[in-house]
Write a structure and sequence with these properties.
11 helices; single chain; alpha/beta; 6-stranded antiparallel sheet; globular
Length: about 400
């Protein structure tokens, strides 16, 4: 069991962490740090004004305070080899460099937002930016309670940085529209902050084109989502070696495979040693015949290629006749297709290798495999898809 110390224990999220930590069997609350609540007996654990005064042992520090607490946290953590989870935003570039340096000696997890949903929003925003390119204008609007001291939010900046990383042309950040005058340029991302009341946190990413707007949105209904996310991170970080970790590591672990499905009644065609020009002509003719191809792969074979693809069994004879009409040698066999899907594959290497080893160990033959960032498709021996799905679900622990 890992002993946890909460930095900023007197705040609203700090109180939520105290209430929720008992739901995690691997964690135990050891105490807290809060310069405004160090004499608060209602917390029922030792609370210190700073880590310099701390007399309890902690394996993990969860920080939901302010950037100016970083020196106190790093000094203690480096001296005691303590894992730290930084959920604070508003760090300067110099402080981020300090965090990076510290991660060479201790395990450090940092995230502008501890919500899994927000991190999915970041991924979706990147994909939308890749799709739209510079043809749509991008605006980010973030809303928080009136007590939040930094603006824009760290999550808004993370969203902007993620979008910027996939755009071909350079872009600048435009914070608000005042006092700037003039029309909007094609090379900017607008970032706007709203502060008021007790808004927990809301982020909207708008992709604005001519006559249409696509908005991706996430809203936290309570602070529980951030506290529970941080505690989940604490269980993930237990016994991790020194290094810098992020929410991508959580997504890669927990969401590497989230769904698996099958397609039965398909035929796998293999056409060896075919020219590129013949491939183009063949695919065009199959398309003209309204035959849907799946799992298309081409592998070099000297100056030519080996072509493979799958079709539904109902189209098997028609496809075979078309191939023969071009005097191309080919082979075919009936098979099943299994699709393995997971958003975390983008952040975790080796999933395809694990799947191949698993199915091979279970004596399921793999005839062909294709992969993308978030999907693996396997063509396997006929009538084996149900067994394959069962094995994969068991291996990745989901129903």
């Amino acid at each position: 069991m890992k002993k946890v110390l909460i930095y900023g224990i007197g705040g609203k999220i700090g109180h939520t962490l105290v209430r929720e930590i008992n739901k995690f069997d691997a964690l135990q609350l050891a105490g807290g740090v809060d310069k405004f609540a160090y004499n608060d007996n209602n917390l029922k654990v030792p609370v210190f004004k700073s880590l310099k005064d701390c007399t309890v042992k902690a394996d993990i520090i969860i920080d939901f305070s302010r950037p100016d607490a970083l020196d106190d946290i790093l000094t203690y953590a480096l001296a005691n080899k303590t894992t730290i989870i930084l959920a604070t935003t508003g760090y300067t570039d110099a402080q981020r460099a300090q965090i990076c340096d510290a991660s060479k000696h201790i395990p450090v997890f940092t995230s502008a937002n501890m919500s899994i949903g927000v991190n999915l929003l970041i991924d979706l925003s990147k994909k939308a930016a890749q799709f739209f390119g510079n043809s749509f204008d991008i605006e980010i609007i973030e809303q928080h309670h009136k007590m939040k001291v930094d603006a824009p939010s760290g999550t808004a900046l993370t969203l902007a940085d993620s979008i910027k990383s996939v755009l071909k042309d350079s872009v600048d950040y435009q914070f608000g529209r005042q006092p700037t005058t003039g029309k909007r340029t094609d090379h900017e991302i607008g970032i706007h902050s709203i502060r008021g009341g007790n808004i927990v946190g809301k982020h909207d990413v708008m992709f604005i084109g001519n006559d249409e707007t696509v908005t991706l949105s996430h809203e936290a209904q309570s602070r529980d989502v951030f506290a529970l996310g941080a505690l989940r991170v604490a269980t993930f970080m237990a016994d991790k070696p020194a290094g810098l970790y992020s929410m991508n590591d959580i997504i890669g672990q927990d969401f590497s495979v989230t769904a698996v499905s099958s397609v039965k009644g398909v035929t796998l065609f293999n056409i060896p040693d075919v020219t590129l020009n013949s491939i183009i002509i063949l695919l065009a003719e199959l398309s003209k015949s309204e035959i849907n191809l799946d799992m298309i792969s081409e592998t070099p074979n000297g100056k030519n290629f080996n072509l493979s693809f799958t079709v539904f069994n109902a189209d098997e004879n028609k496809v075979s006749d078309i191939i023969k009409s071009h005097n191309l040698a080919h082979s075919s066999q009936h098979a099943d297709i299994v699709r393995i899907i997971g958003a975390g594959m983008e952040h975790k290497s080796g999933v395809a290798g694990d799947v191949v080893k698993l199915l091979t160990d279970k004596h399921i033959n793999i005839f062909a495999i294709t992969t993308s960032e978030t999907q693996i498709t396997c063509c396997i021996n006929e009538a084996s898809s149900e067994k394959a799905i069962s094995y994969i679900k068991e291996f990745y622990h989901f129903n």
